């Protein structure tokens, strides 16, 4: 299946990982065009026109959420990032998603401008200009975006319920560990994708949409749950579920 929404190849250079958006070893970025495509499919499955509360429960560096917040500000009311790693992952996620707060991108542009002056490196000046463009884009689309960054084991419904904390996400978009640069961690990691999806679904309203992305030709079956939509682009596949369907899928094996 090809692209339905992102049918033209835009220049996403301003969103490159490691420029305006921060990166670190072990925290891969995600293809921007594909992120936008999956998000728009999820909006379509959800239906309606009200802005969504968007949650990534395997947020890592927060790159995916930050990109979607910038590209689709008008469609998003709030962002929620969570991860089991309270140190490296959530520190990085807070820095990236925090760019969408009041003055966040402007402060990043000033920081990069100072680095360009101090180290005389054109790359910093180019990144500072990109931060300025992203700041103007965000402002034109609705301005700063509320967000929260919280720790939670994605296999633990109690921890996930605490992380959601009354936000009531309408939509989940998440890129799960592939076992290459990233892998499942925590005491329940053996429950895999099935355990992760059923745990996440258990803390959502029944009509919430979950878009999960994996590397490979298809998303593995999740019990009896049938995706409302599937897509595959390049080396990645995505499946879109409604939370109520996953709640009826049956428990994961421990």
From TrEMBL:
One GO BP annotation of this record: methylation
Species: Micromonospora carbonacea
InterPro entries found in the cross-reference section: AviRa, SAM-dependent_MTases_sf
Name of the featured protein: rRNA methyltransferase AviRa
Lineage: Bacteria, Bacillati, Actinomycetota, Actinomycetes, Micromonosporales
UniProt keyword annotations, A-Z: Methyltransferase, Transferase
Statement: the UniProt record of this protein carries the keyword DNA-binding: no
Coiled-coil ranges (or none): none
GO molecular function: methyltransferase activity
